[in-house]
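TL;DR need structure tokens for one chain.
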Amino acid sequence: MPSPSSRPPRVTGLPACFFRVIQAKAVLLAAGGGPTMYLYHTPSGDKACDGMAMALRAGLALRDMEMVQFHPTGLMAGPDTRMTGTVLEEGLRGAGGWLLNGAGARFMTDYHAHGERATRDIVSRAIFAEMRAGRTSPLGGVFVEMKHLGPDEVRRQFKGMVERCADCGFDLAGGRVEVVPTAHYMMGGVVFEPDGTTALPGLYLAGEDAGGVHGANRLGGNGVANSTVFGGIAGDSMAAFAAKEGALREPDPEAIEAAVARCRRPFAQAPGDLNGLRERLAQLMWDDVGILRDRAGLQRAIAALEDLAAELEETGIPDSQPAFNLTWHDWLNLDSQILVSRAIARAALAREDSRGAHFREDFPDAGDAEKSAYTVVRQAEDGLEVSQQPVAFTIVRPGESLIEGEAGAPPGAEQEQTA
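>> reply
TL;DR here they are.
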């Protein structure tokens, strides 16, 4: 522990609580994404996109925020358990599992020739379409069925999934399990460079907070690779920066006081229905900024999100003691969730095509790949601003591939690889 004289300054003002200013030569922003603003989601409920929200407030830009990936098969265990939304792995469908609507009929081949083995975005859209048409299971989703593969084989091959379902009262090996698409991963995030640097000197990015790594969609398993690879790169860059030009800068008192005042705001307001605000956020994001989008729904969501943000500003918390105050944490989390939700909705409205995880029913075509652009969201004085930047094709162009023998490989690629 440092001696009292060497400890960072405290910012006091709340009983039994203080704010501490921590100085560093370099900082890594790796708070994780976590689209927990949706009605059904896979991440832990304590994730709130805080990193992206902090970056926006600090003046940094976010990119690709409309690209929210939904996993097709989240467990549907009812409204009163956090198990709802947790993932049932894609290997179930890959092994030959069936998706059935509420009438017990397979439906995936009505939407794609690959059936249940189509990509995540296609399967999620198909399930959502069945739900919207009213062809649902008792809890409002659809069924996954594995018993035709042999219950013993299912238990052997998917032991963990069988046990997860059994914990919630479902028999995956011999019966049917209700599932629903669940918000899983955010391809969008803070604009950064390949070495982990950002527009703010000394601030570095890695993991789901970082935007642009996966383009418009993400392959399974690449989330861990993202954190591992860019975490290592950022660590090397930070060490080099700290050794060469890093310094402990003098804190900005005005910025500190503004941050403290924002955190303390809910203690100064009359208590309100924080949980009701959170439930409204989850429902409107699922209905209007979810798997299937259109202009009317997005405009409706943008207006509703502005209202929610204003209501939260006037909503306080009942307990005036900050120590161990989880309701205070909930307020701060909801503040971040609403801000990032606004960025998602505005980016989705700006993108008038359908790419990867983003699907506009009023603009279902992907558009001209040669004119591809990505969205950029910034915090301005009067709200969020959205622009589009052209994609720089520095490695391959649309229709090309670097895989040997694959259609679209650049001329001469096979000769170069065999030389």
